[in-house]
């Protein structure tokens, strides 16, 4: 993706001097950004970031001072009955037991010590500490001066960020301390209060909390009577197409060792997502500032495959496999065969991406095929990791306690088998000559997307979507139909990338027919997912996970059918060699795979960690990713269609390049929004994994009472 530098190029082109006259024929937009201009824009960006952080810092300090001023007044104004409402039933029961024991002990002490029982403990007094804070003509022609300012502002920016984090932690500690002080005072009041009304209040609250309706309170226990014929009463009706579904059972306990393994897969996947898309942003800067640096390791030709492979094998692959380690034993109803093998696979795959990245930046690559730039010794590590995962899953499924194999395991295990096969085919050198190498490249590239990422991810959706909707998948039969037809047709379509090439005409036709046949699994899968939503659409409004599933389902249909449309010779003639294929690849790998993976991650991590991310930042992640992808893909598809028509009319090639300039600007804006959304995702993952937890006031009151008792 192209970074914000394209936007700065656009601003410079507006602010810069206008040419005296545009040429009558084709013209190429060009701007050269030198080091001084780049430093100016970097300085401007740092200044805006500092300004934003200072505003947030002032707001947090104001919030802190307001909290300190309102704290005492709130404690005095709050009645004891309001404080009781903050306790749950178990906590009230503990307090009642304490009060009863306290009353018994009081009678005994009165008999033994007489008037000494009048010496009641006095409440302890505490004071809050106060927090105070104080806050504190240039020539731009010299690049050295600008660089010095940038170098000074960078540590300043880091210091402000660190200060902001520290203040946030201080406010959190202060708030928790105030809650503990409040709990201590309430506990002392409960201990010292001998008013019978206290126990009555607690008993009334406990009765309200423990009240439950009888099973037939609302429905009754009489048989339905329908004299008007308004009800449709059906008993013992079998659905001939849909297989019998299991009844809901309590969700099983998640083994801590398995949970730790899954979380490490997801954390490393998040790292590679940030790394890969940040590389994409930097590559975008290289478009408009090619002389920014002259290091061969950072050249465009080396960084572009670093970006794509980090996303493919780092982000998507690790996230899928990590989620698979949760799903496979869960639907098999048995523990994972070997957690140790899972750690070995995690280490090997991360080592593959790390060594592959270093090798690509050093200029060591496979010398050709897209998505197989890693040399074979490095890719062998990935293959071994996949083999360990396959054996692990196969052994787990083999020990299942259920008779049938749930459809998720069909998709997941098949995806791993196909990926091992296509990797061997792509790296064995026997047929890597001439057209054979080209045909193998098309086979490998398309099977990597369809038989690895798509097949595996669909298996995850068949587990997590019904779970989130709390209802079974609409049709097991449609899932099996989609599974076998995808295997039948998708394995044939790799050559549609080389229509009108020297590849035999019949092989191109086979690929086109296979692409048309892909309508069957796509329509079957989309129908299955949407019909599972049927009757539960209202849940979208109350869930932050289901919108990710819905967006992924929509783009599963639109992106896949778009690929079918691109395969025909008439459309291929227009769209091939244009940015339409770039838009299509992001519509599928981002709109389908990434959105589905985010949905699954948001569904599983809170169950493993016991914590959820703030809904506002999850919403920011969702909308920035969705809007950014739409801004990225739609202008590229529209502009590329017009560009292809220009070429068919015989217009010069360079005219098409100049024509795409405004559409590339939209691509830059959309790509930057997508990149920013990934930092929200990383923050959400951090919040779900962080050990910080809110203080339970009720539990703190019980703890204070226990201390008083002791």
Automatic annotation (TrEMBL):
GO terms for molecular function: cytochrome-c oxidase activity; heme binding. GO terms for biological process: aerobic respiration; electron transport coupled proton transport; respiratory electron transport chain. One of its GO terms (cellular component) is membrane. It holds the Pfam family COX1. The chain crosses the membrane at residues 38-58, 107-125, 145-165, 261-285, 310-329, 341-362, 374-394, 406-429, 449-466, 473-493, 505-524, 536-557, 587-605, 617-638, 664-686. Keywords: Electron transport, Membrane, Respiratory chain, Transmembrane, Transmembrane helix, Transport. PROSITE patterns: COX1. InterPro entries: Cyt_c_oxase-like_su1_dom (IPR023616), Cyt_c_oxase-like_su1_sf (IPR036927), Cyt_C_Oxase_1 (IPR000883). Residues 239-710 form the Cytochrome oxidase subunit I profile domain. This is Cytochrome oxidase subunit I.
């Amino acid at each position: 993706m192209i970074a914000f530098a394209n936007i700065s190029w656009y601003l410079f082109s507006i602010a810069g001097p206008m040419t005296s006259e545009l040429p009558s024929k084709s013209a190429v937009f060009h701007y050269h950004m030198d080091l001084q201009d780049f430093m100016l824009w970097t300085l401007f960006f740092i200044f805006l970031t500092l300004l934003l952080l200072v505003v947030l810092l002032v707001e947090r300090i104001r919030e802190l001072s307001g909290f300190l001023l309102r704290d005492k007044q709130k404690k005095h104004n709050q009645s004891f009955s309001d404080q009781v409402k903050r306790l749950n039933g178990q906590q009230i029961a503990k307090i009642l037991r304490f009060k009863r024991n306290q009353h018994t002990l009081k009678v005994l002490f009165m008999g033994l010590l007489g008037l000494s029982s009048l010496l009641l403990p006095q409440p302890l007094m505490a004071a809050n500490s106060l927090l105070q804070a104080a806050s504190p003509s240039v020539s731009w022609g010299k690049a050295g001066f600008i660089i010095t300012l940038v170098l000074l502002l960078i540590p300043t920016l880091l210091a402000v960020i660190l200060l902001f984090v520290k203040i946030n932690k201080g406010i959190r500690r202060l708030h928790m301390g105030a809650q503990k002080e409040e709990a201590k005072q309430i506990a002392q009041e409960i201990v010292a209060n001998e008013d019978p009304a206290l126990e009555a209040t607690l008993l009334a609250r406990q009765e309200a909390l423990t009240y439950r309706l009888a099973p037939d309170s609302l429905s009754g226990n009489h048989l339905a009577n329908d004299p008007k014929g308004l009800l449709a009463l059906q008993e013992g009706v079998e659905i001939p197409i849909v297989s019998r579904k299991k009844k809901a059972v309590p969700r099983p306990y998640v083994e801590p060792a398995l949970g730790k393994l899954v979380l490490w897969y997801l954390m490393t996947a998040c790292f590679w997502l940030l790394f890969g898309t940040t590389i994409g942003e930097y590559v975008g800067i290289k478009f408009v500032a090619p002389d920014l640096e002259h290091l061969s390791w950072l050249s465009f030709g080396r960084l572009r495959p670093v970006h794509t492979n980090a996303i493919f094998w780092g982000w998507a692959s690790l996230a899928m496999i990590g989620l698979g380690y949760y799903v496979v034993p869960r639907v098999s109803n048995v523990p994972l065969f070997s957690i140790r093998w899972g750690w070995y696979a995690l280490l090997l795959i991360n080592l593959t991406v790390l060594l592959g990245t270093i090798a690509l930046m050093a200029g060591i690559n496979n010398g050709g095929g897209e998505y197989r730039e890693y040399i074979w010794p490095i890719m062998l590590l990935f293959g071994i990791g996949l083999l360990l995962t396959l054996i692990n899953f196969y052994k787990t499924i083999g020990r299942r306690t259920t008779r049938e194999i749930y459809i998720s395991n069909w998709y997941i295990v098949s995806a791993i088998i196909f990926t091992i096969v296509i990797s061997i085919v792509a790296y064995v050198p026997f047929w890597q000559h001439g057209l054979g190498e080209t045909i193998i490249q098309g086979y490998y590239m398309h099977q990597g997307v369809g038989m690895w990422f798509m097949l595996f991810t669909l298996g995850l959706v068949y587990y997590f979507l019904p779970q989130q909707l709390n209802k079974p998948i609409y049709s097991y039969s449609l899932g099996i139909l989609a599974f076998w037809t995808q295997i039948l047709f998708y394995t044939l379509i790799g050559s549609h990338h080389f229509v009108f090439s020297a590849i035999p005409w019949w092989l191109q036709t086979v690929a086109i027919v296979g692409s048309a046949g892909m309508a069957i699994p796509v329509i079957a899968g989309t129908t299955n997912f949407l019909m599972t939503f049927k009757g539960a659409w209202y849940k979208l409004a109350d869930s932050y996970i289901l919108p990710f599933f819905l967006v992924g389902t929509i783009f599963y249909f639109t992106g896949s059918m778009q690929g079918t449309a691109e395969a025909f010779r008439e459309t291929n003639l227009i769209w091939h060699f244009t940015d339409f294929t770039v838009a299509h690849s992001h519509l599928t790998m981002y709109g389908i795979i990434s959105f589905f993976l985010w949905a699954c991650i948001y569904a599983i991590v809170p169950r493993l960690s016991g914590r959820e991310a703030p809904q506002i930042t999850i919403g920011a992640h969702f909308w920035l990713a969705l809007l950014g992808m739409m801004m990225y893909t739609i202008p590229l598809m529209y502009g590329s269609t017009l560009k292809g028509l220009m070429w068919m009319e015989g217009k010069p090639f360079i005219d098409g390049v100049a024509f795409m300039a405004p559409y590339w600007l939209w691509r830059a804006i959309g790509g930057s929004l997508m990149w920013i959304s990934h930092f929200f995702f990383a923050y959400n993952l951090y919040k779900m994994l962080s050990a910080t937890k809110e203080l339970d006031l009720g539990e703190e009151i019980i703890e204070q009472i226990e201390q008083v008792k002791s």
